[in-house]
Design a protein that fits this description.
4 helices; mainly alpha
Length: 108
């Protein structure tokens, strides 16, 4: 079962330490943990945060339908774009990678 939490607080209040402890606990009990951290230097780079999150799943992109795999690989600079792709194949491809990682069944 997936769960979500939102942490709000002042700088230095321990949000990062709490998230790191939660991620470590999740790993210890066998839960797959995907992380992404925003940083100012990457603010102008398209898909930088998404790439951090999805990077561990990219070896599984071969299971995606071809148009989704090509869009994902082109967006993350793994392969050259093979043609014009709208945003939908990328969005659906990333969603399918995340669903597969969460045990949501086969790609479609």
């Amino acid at each position: 079962m997936a769960r979500t939490a939102l942490l709000l607080g002042e700088a230095g209040s321990g949000k990062t330490a709490l998230l790191e402890a939660a991620a470590e606990y999740a790993r210890r009990v066998g839960t797959r943990v995907l992380l992404s951290r925003g940083c100012e230097v990457e603010a102008e780079q398209s898909f930088a945060g998404l790439h951090q999150l999805v990077r561990p799943l990219l070896p599984e992109a071969g299971a995606l339908p071809a148009h989704q795999r090509e869009a994902v690989e082109a967006a993350f600079g793994i392969a050259a774009a093979t043609g014009p792709h709208g945003p939908a194949p990328l969005r659906i491809g990333v969603l399918n990678l995340l669903a597969g990682a969460a045990g949501g069944g086969p790609f479609s």
